[in-house]
Amino acid sequence: MYMGKVLIIGAGGVGTVVAHKMAQIPEIFNEVLIASRTYEKVEKLLKKLNKANFHGSKVDADNSSEVVALIKDFKPDIVVNVALPYQDLPIMDACLETGVSYLDTANYEPKDNPHFTYEWQWAYKERYEKAGIMAILGCGFDPGVTQAYVAYAAKHYFDEIHYLDIVDCNAGDHGKYFATNFNPEINIREVTQNGRYYENGKWIETKPLSIKKSINYPGIGLRDSYLMYHEELESLVKNFPTIKRARFWMTFSQRYLTALEVLQEIGMTSIKPIKFKGMDIIPLEFLKAILPEPSALGANYKGQTSIGVQLRGLKDGKERTCYIWNNCSHEEAFKETGTQAINYTTGVPAMIGAKLYLQGIWKKPGVYTLEELNPDPFMEDLNKYGLPWNIELDNPLPVEIAQ
Question: How far apart are CA 359 and CA 378, in angstroms?
């Protein structure tokens, strides 16, 4: 029997899913401490869980010394960071100082510079190796599951992968005119950045959402999908050097895009401080404060998500295609955890990553993204814990069919 102590930092929608899923496996997650800057969220979550082995605390994750003190007091085996990407490095520093392993669901992003890259976290590799601890980076869905899909396909179905497309469709409807499915600051910064894709050894930059194609998603149908840059592309082309082209596509409704365009035009998505009644405020932070809380969208959310990878390459000298995907119901996610499918698809993989670490299956010093780890036990657990996947081999890829 494997038993361990886990510190969860973050009590929003994803943290709620992680906690619910850990509560279902007490034989693995012996004791869990949930910590957040907003202790009211922690109290609310603990009341929902009603489990004697779950505890709560308050912590400012921006303050590495506070995290250090909490780790020293609780003595977890691993810290699961489901706070904001701005806080990845302070928490990684705290883990390094205390000799405790680390897991997150999205890579670091500086608060004052809206772009993301793994380079800041990869820089911890040697220090984590020397400390004998592990960092599992981006253990959500995308990034996370998408990388495990690629690793699984590479292990079982390909000799070489040449073309990779990650496709992410949210066909759900929450009934709000405009809302984001996860933290508005992170979501809007991500969507409004320039797009980027990899082709023939080079990164090609595009204007935000300027490249669109209609993709047919299983169980959903045709949806307009926009080329974006997403962090897992950076690690996948590094770890699979035979890839000739790698792209990421995401769906947005026209209503969402129109509202976002208006907000951009009037300056509400800016991260530059402005003066308001003698105070400095950041427009995007103010917008976040008035938008619906993502974790509260679940009650009225209908429909499903469909996220997967579409691959083309060679096996035994012959061309092969592979499409691996999951569809997740907003209604079913809410029924189980009280959150919507975007939170669910991120939280379940984070729980699985922590589980595999505690079991010693994924446990080695250093800093790793998911495609560097054995995908088989992770893929088995996805089926077991709520994110069953589908696979099609040697069929035309929807992303490559002209619409």
Answer: 12
CB under 8 Å to 18, separation ≥6 — which residues?
8, 80, 82, 347, 350, 351, 354
**Residues 33, 74: contact at Cβ < 8 Å?**
yes
Residues 251 and 223 sit within 8 Å (Cβ to Cβ):
yes
Distance CA 102, CA 34 (A): 15
Report the sign of the C-alpha dihedral through residues 100, 130, 361, 382, in that order: positive
d(CA 141, CA 342): 9
Q: Burial level of 169, CB count in 10 A (0-12/13-18/19+)?
A: buried
Nearest CA to 77 out of 346, 348, 363 is that of 363
Alpha helix (H) residue ranges in 55-105: 64-74, 88-98
| pLDDT for residue 262 | 78
Burial of 292 (0-12, 13-18, 19+ CB in 10 A): middle
Q: Is the dihedral of CA 275, 108, 121, 72 positive or negative?
A: positive
Instruction: Give, as one character, the DSSP assignment of residue 244.
Output: S
Q: How large is the C-alpha radius of gyration of the chain?
A: 20
- pLDDT tens track for 85-98: 889 999 999 999 99
Mean pLDDT of the chain: 92
Q: Using the 8-state DSSP alphabet, how is residue 194 labeled?
A: P
| Contact between residue 341 and residue 305 where contact means Cβ atoms under 8 Å apart | yes
User: 3-class SS at 308?
Assistant: strand
Domains and CATH numbers, the chain: 4-140+342-384 (3.40.50.720), 145-336+388-400 (3.30.360.10)
Q: Output the six-digit token pair for 253.
A: 């409704």
pLDDT band at 290 (very low <50, low <70, confident <90, very high): confident
- Contact assessment for residue 328 and residue 172, using Cβ atoms and an 8 Å cutoff: no
Q: What is the pLDDT of residues 36-85, one digit of tens each?
A: 999 999 999 999 999 999 999 999 999 999 999 999 999 999 999 999 88
| CA 217-200-315 angle, 5° bins | 65
Helix 341-358, helix 330-337: angle, nearest 10: 60
Q: Which residues contact 181 (CB under 8 A, 6 or more apart)?
A: 170, 187, 294, 297, 340, 342, 343
